[in-house]
Amino acid sequence: xxxxxxxxxxxxxxxxxxxxxxxxxxxxxxxxxxxxxxxxxxxxxxxxxxxxxxxxxxxxxxxxxxxxxxxxxxxxxxxxxxxxxxxxxxxxxxxxxxxxxxxxxxxxxxxxxxxxxxxxxxxxxxxxxxxxxxxxxxxxxxxxxxxxxxxxxxxx
Length: 156
Prior knowledge:
By secondary structure, this protein is of the alpha/beta class. It folds into 2 domains: 3-55, no CATH class; 59-153, Metalloproteases ("zincins"), catalytic domain (Zincin-like, 2-Layer Sandwich), CATH 3.30.2010.10. It is built from 5 helices and 6 strands.
């Protein structure tokens, strides 16, 4: 993705980026070093690329299909979020919402489906009990998906 960088004397610490006609318009403080600029460019390029990949995945349809297939409740809502850096997904059983880290947007389908199933099971069993694990393990690619996620999270 192309990035257009504008240095601003009015900006003191923060950077801001938006997508304009397919180009990332990045505004950074004028005082940034070349290294800091490169870090900002890399950060925002990765963020917009994740958003682009995430937009191509219909989470609601996938969650509905998996809920039916495994006899689990459908979530009220399911969406990608960009603020989960320590978890792959989270669930609020009280209101039926599921959030998935957009870091997974480009991962294989079976991995995303595993995390969806994991979070759907939380709508039934809040804890990681024996029953919880039995329900999650009904998903045929559980071990493979866990291995993939473990490899991806190594070093976090």
